[in-house]
Amino acid sequence: MIDRLPGATSRRTFVAGAVAAVAAGATSTMGMSLYRNRHEVPASYGLTVAMRSATGPWRQTRELVHAADLERVIPGTRVLAGPQQEELLATQEAWLDGLDLPDHVAGTPRDLVRQAALDLWVLSAGLPMAVAGWSPMWRHAWPRDTAHVAVALHRLGDAKGATRQLAALASRVGRAGRMQARYALDGGTPDDRPPQDDGFGWALWAAGSTVDSWRGTADEASIDALVRHCATTALTRLGSDGLPLPSPDYWELEERQLTLGTAAPLLAGLEHAALLTTGGLRERCAAAALRLDHQVHSTFGMRGWPRRVSGGASDTAIAWMLPPYRVGPPREAELRAALDEAARQMARPNGGYAPGGDWRRDGVAWTPETAVLAGAWATADDTRGRAVETLDWLGRHRSRGRPPSWSRPPPIWDAERTRPQEEP
């Protein structure tokens, strides 16, 4: 159980860890929200999103730019050439100038963090909430995306942006008894996907990780209410054994048994809730987190940390049992060994990682999963070099402004799925 909220990380860890898991990979949760049946369709999206207007309805402020039209985007920016380009460029650069962009880490592309920050900007600035991407299927807000965007903006020094994301999530969630899979920017939900309980954990983790941004602001009351509601409701989603009830997780599949993708975010969230709340709620969250940690180790841990509690292959969720999602977790050495084993199962021939060990053998690596692993590796001295190597891999496999044979562009947390240089 943690006894403090996460403080500032070192600049090196910040680059290779927080920015890897939250900013460099925070260019779309389309990969962190897999919705398997829709991902059977080959990707055919444009290469980037760019701003075209500073005014007007939000749907008209941006454009999805395809490979053949990339010359319309001003190099090194997320701005389309046109009548409003000077105003948009000034806005973009003013925002970048206000950030605490970390120093370059040897072994990674020099522009990696800047480009990730620009993706965050173009998919959040002036919108009701950050979206996963700009094609219609992804022009919505997933709670886990919102959480990661808020944390990324906070760690980059954009306190107002981080607060705005959490306040927007608070307005969508309200007092609802379940967290929806995703929210339409104009209100409601875009389809009938079932609720996903991991969202309560993600909201609590983000609120705890960004507390220095929103405490003392005009939005403090609404975010505090979000924290209390998510904490209280998360407790009701635990069974008599202390484990969460089955729920779809970031794979967005119907689940009849508990997955680590639900248990790990709820555990991290309850740990943060125990530090954000007071009185009896704080005590209940602390006790529930301690019991949940024990039960997760006694079930998932006893079976080698699989994706599902009954056993099988592992997936990305093992990383959420570690920093930067938790602080000083018990039995950390065991968890880090499990992380390395999961990475072995998830490895792809091109050097990246799939969502899980039993993901289809299509040779495709996913940006968010790869970045999440880098983030966890960056928080330990022994694996920080591996984190830098993984960040370098992400940087070398980005779209470079020409038709890709191996990637499609990022929306917001998982941006690009990277095609292999060699098919398996």
From TrEMBL:
Where are the compositionally biased (Basic and acidic residues) regions?
414-424
Biological process annotations from GO = carbohydrate metabolic process
Q: Where is this region: Disordered?
A: 394-424
- Know the name of this protein? Glycoside hydrolase family 15
Q: Which organism is it from?
A: Janibacter limosus
